[in-house]
Amino acid sequence: MNLPENGRVVVIDDDYKEVESLLKVLSKNKVPVMYFTGILEELPEQPFSDVRIIFLDIELGTEGQPEKTKVSTTAGVIQKIIGNRSNPYLIIAWTKYDKLLNGIRKLLKDNPPLLMLNLEKSKCKDEKGKYEIGKIEEKLKEELKKAGIFHLFIIWENFVHNSAGKIVNDFSSFYSLDDNWNKNMCGVFHKLAKAYAGEQLPAGKVDELIKNALLAFNGTFLDTLENEIRNYIDIDKTLLPDDKGNIANDILAKVNSRLLLIFDIPDMPVPGNIYFNIKAPEAKIDELFNEKNIDTYQQKDDLNKKVKAIFLEVSPSCDYTQNKWKLHRVLPGVIWPVDYQKKINQADYIYTSRLFKIDNEIYKFVFDLRYLTSLSFDDLKDKRPEFRIRHELLIDIQSKIAGHINRPGVISLE
Predict the structure, then answer these.
(1) Is residue 292 domain-shared with residue 357, that is, in the same domain?
(2) Domain boundary at 239, 269, 304, which?
(3) Does residue 62 fall inside a structural domain?
(4) Among 201, 213, 265, 304, which is most exposed with the fewest C-beta within 10 angstroms?
């Protein structure tokens, strides 16, 4: 039974005795919950952004009221908890009024649930009318099977939760848990910050020291998370059907952008930054074009209008961390519209990326490795990057640059 183990479950019922048995089942399955009666004063002032499952009793202090009142009251409580931001979540009705569920869904149109399931209270009781934990658990398992792919997101979030817990347990155990633990661990965090930021660590800025110390956990966290996933044994193969379907370019570009681009970034000149308007030699569109003469191409004007010059900072990360860089190493390129992707030159000095979604348009990054250049620090001073590519993509591009520079020449006769 795949349920969130990280506190992303909400139970809403105005009668604690009615929901007590359900809470016991969730606790038995290691599921921490947030419990609300539905009373306005007890609801959070700010909505949660990561609720995954809501166990819901529809009649929240509205016994004897018209159905319309019950629906609007319940929808208002849910809205107060989840807000308007679109997040995948399930509503599992813990009620006998299942016919009101469609009305609630309509009122939650700005952030509708992925699924609305029903545990049916009456089927969770024994012959004497008392709630039976075994029946609740069995009915819950039966209903959750309908959640499909949603389970895979829950499983991954649980892996993240467990991996983070392992990191905390491992690092906190380096010293004995005695009166000196806090002082000793303070020294470890100072060392972690220095190891991560190197010579870029600003002196006297405690906030930056803390941030860099926490960032130092990322590498070992990813390894721990990978081990958690690879060692996962209890895999339900029915969660992923064989039907792969057809994925539109728009979705592919969005996924790639989430995997490999970072848009919310600090204004810092670090490797991977992509700039638009800087004074540097630009890659030439006619040399990135796959035909000899772009002037004869009928859609030349439209292509030129949509292509935009970009500049990628490809300096080695170690030079940046150790403050050994003397110049910015910049690779010129363009963002190339997907409608013209067949017109990209396939020469070995051209690097072409996958699809990305930028400003609601789909592009590929196209770089001309021959135009690798260097800029002084003053050239990029006060220049804000538009976004950044992630380390994996940066390494791939850097390896292509190295391969282009080091390609062997062979003297021979034909």
Answers:
(1) yes
(2) 239
(3) yes
(4) 304
CB neighbours of 142 closer than 8 A, spacing ≥ 6? Answer: none
Choose one of 130, 147, 164: the last residue of a domain: 147
For residues 367 and 289, give the distance between their C-alpha atoms in angstroms, rounded to a whole number: 12
- Other CB atoms within a 10 A radius of the CB of residue 227 amount to 13
Is residue 276 within 8 Å of 308, Cβ to Cβ? yes
Give the 3-state secondary structure of residue 367.
strand
Question: What is the Cα–Cα distance from 294 to 292, expressed in whole angstroms?
Answer: 6
Instruction: For CA atoms 106, 109, 114, 118, give the dihedral sign.
Output: negative
Q: Is 12 helix (H, G, I), strand (E, B) or coil?
A: strand
- Output the DSSP codes for 49-107: S---EEEE-S-SS-TTS-HHHHHHHHHHHHHHHH-SS----EEEE-SS-GGGHHHHHHH
Instruction: Report how far residue 354's alpha carbon sits from residue 55's, in angstroms, rounded to the nearest whole number.
Output: 41
Specify the DSSP element, H or E, that contains 355: strand 350-358
H or E element at residue 178: none
Task: With a cut of 50, list the residues of the chain below it in pLDDT.
Answer: none
Pairing of strands 373-375, 361-368: unpaired
What pLDDT, on a 0 to 100 scale, did the predictor assign at position 51? 92
* Beta strands 53-56 and 9-12, pairing class: parallel
Q: Give me the amino acid identity at 201.
A: L
| Residue 330, amino acid | V
At 183 the pLDDT is: 93
Separation CA 206–CA 216 (nearest Å): 15
Length of the chain as a residue count: 414
How is residue 298 annotated by DSSP? T
Token output for 310? 């970009």
With vertex at residue 361, the alpha carbon angle to CA 333 and CA 268, rounded to the nearest 5 degrees, is 55
> 336 and 300 in contact (C-beta within 8 Å)?
no
Q: What is the pLDDT of residue 339?
A: 93
User: Which tens digits make up the pLDDT trace of 275-322?
Assistant: 998 888 899 999 999 988 898 899 999 999 999 999 999 988 887 767
Residue 138 confidence (pLDDT): 83
In a domain, 191, yes or no: yes
Contact between 113 and 90 under an 8 Å Cβ cutoff? The reply is yes
Distances (CA, A) of 246 to 57, 141, 242, 254: 39, 31, 12, 15
Burial of 394 (0-12, 13-18, 19+ CB in 10 A): buried
CB 201 within 8 A of CB 44: no
**What single-letter DSSP state applies at residue 289?**
B
Q: Which residues contact 148 (CB under 8 A, 6 or more apart)?
A: 239
